[in-house]
Specification:
90 residues, mainly alpha, elongated
Length: 90
Amino acid sequence: MKDYIEERAVEIADYIIENNATVRQTAKQFRISKSTVHKDVTERLLQINPSLAREARKVLDMNKSERHIRGGMATREKYLHQHECKASGL
């Protein structure tokens, strides 16, 4: 594995742990795909630093278990905003 990929995998894991970040947030921050984030954390990092991989995985698993709640909140906000726009005549 190339050095820059190993460094990126460690940086990604550190970012996820420090910021309690989702895969999507991390991908946006590092300007890479969600698939790359996932592969770096779940496969590559296991070979480089297994304990760091486990910590990052805990955060990602927690985010995954909560995603249906965030999705519902986003939908609620969307419809509240639409209602406000209609009420104000925009």
